[in-house]
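sanity check both lines:
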Amino acid sequence: MMDLSVVIPLYNEEESLPELYAWIERVVSAAGLSYEVIFVDDGSTDRSWEVVSRLAAEHPEHVRGASFRRNYGKSPALNTGFGMARGKVVITMDADLQDSPDEIPELYRMITEEGYDLVSGYKKKRYDPLSKTIPTKLFNATARKVSGIKNLHDFNCGLKAYRGEVVKHIEVYGDMHRYIPYLAKLAGFDKIGEKVVHHQARKYGKTKFGLDRFVNGYLDLATLWFTGRFGKKPMHLFGLLGSFMFILGFFAVVIVGVMKLYNMSHGRPYILVTDSPYFFISLVMMILGCQLFLAGFIGELVTRNAPGRNDYEIEDKIDIVTPEQ
């Protein structure tokens, strides 16, 4: 098996690609590793694919690539690259030269010698404006809390190393590239480490990401948390919430009725039950409770009929072999 696969998603990075490949080739060759570099062009509108094609013609034993017909996003590009990777260690990095290939040998060593499933880079010193660094810190703090991966400071760093088995057992979709460590943990690969890496200022072009990624990032994190915790048992969430709201609404209705009867029996002024706003609030709570409970039932029916309902990550297996008669 090949030692190393370097997966590089790219979008309009024609200026940086030759320099990036030459840098990777120099570092990896000096380390004595067999390698391949996989460029995934995410629908670039410049000459990026022409540059990749030229590199592949000049280095056919080391350069592979794929090109999308249009721009789909970083996650589909990474997922495609993971499917193509053949190395026992897979390293991802961005194509803008902000990730240093000099980090590759140490990342490779941490996977092969220290036994990590995944090692994520940590750009401790960043060359980014405050409008990017401050939201990033808040985003990472939330991701640590929700995912339970307390030792990571930079979930979204593009420079990561994986044991080859990891990338074959996770599916990166939508904008979930921000949460690959969380995806790996949910798949059972929980030996996750971190390495401080050098972050360089962008040399060519401009960033392809806007501030909307922070809003989308929190929504994706909520989705991942929900599917990871309740994806195979939605009734545990919707049934619990529905039962709680229904019971609370029911007891509220009883209290409204009892208060009316109490006032009537003691000759005190009273109002009709239907004139009380609490009666209608209670009814709404009971109706919402029923709806949430039914949503849990529907979710259970969907998961029961899903083709992957019994797909589990099996690390090893021992079978009993019966001799033939």
In short: The chain has two domains: 2-230, 235-304. Strands lie at 2-10, 35-41, 63-67, 87-92, 118-122, 160-163, 192-196.
